[in-house]
Amino acid sequence: MNLEQLERFSAKICRTHGDIDPISQMNKIDYRYLDAVLIADCACSVDYLATQVEGDIQSTQADIDTLCEKHYLIMSELGRVSITELGKQKLANDRRVHALMALEMTASMSDEEAHLLDSVLHRS
């Protein structure tokens, strides 16, 4: 699991320096919003999401509108935001890719080396 987190961190760095993820055509802020809504595990307010992504309400609303247009999020009449199945699929695909990369990273290591690396990463 920690190796997967390391790979996700490196991908986050890649997305930080490049605006669009070539795999899913989503930018880094798209991932942050989808992840925040999924982690909340219930419909969220725009204020909550702005806090989670450390943004202002106006830009958060604009980003949410864009994600709603892409059908990754849906906004209720009460202004609560939920993730759609398509949004969940995008995040799941992203996580699968990173899990496979973590496995590939340890493929050339012995079990002992992989365990040692995992324990070192777990401590940091």
Describe the protein.
The protein has helices at residues 2-17, 28-40, 46-52, 57-69, 85-106, 111-123, and strands at 73-75, 81-83. It is elongated. The chain has a two-stranded antiparallel ribbon. The protein has 124 residues and is mainly α. It has one domain (21-122): Orthogonal Bundle (Arc Repressor Mutant, subunit A). Helix content is 68%, strand content 5%. α3 (46-52) crosses α4 (57-69). InterPro entries: WH_DNA-bd_sf.
Note the topology.
Blueprint: H1 2-17, H2 28-40, H3 46-52, H4 57-69, E1 73-75, E2 81-83, H5 85-106, H6 111-123
Antiparallel strand pairs: 1-2
Features:
124 residues; two-stranded antiparallel sheet; mainly alpha
Let me know the CATH homologous superfamily.
Answer: Winged helix-like DNA-binding domain superfamily/Winged helix DNA-binding domain
What are the low-pLDDT stretches, counting only 5+ consecutive residues below 50? none
Structural class: mainly alpha
The CATH topology, please? Arc Repressor Mutant, subunit A
What would the average pLDDT be, to the nearest integer? 83
H-E string: HHHHEEHH
Termini separation:
14 Å
The CATH class turns out to be Mainly Alpha
What does the largest sheet look like?
2 strands, antiparallel
- CATH architectural category: Orthogonal Bundle
The helical percent reads 55-70%
Instruction: State the domain count.
Output: 1
Strand content: under 5%
Number of helices: 6
Rg on CA atoms, Å: 17 Å
Based on DSSP secondary structure assignment, what is the total number of beta strands? 2
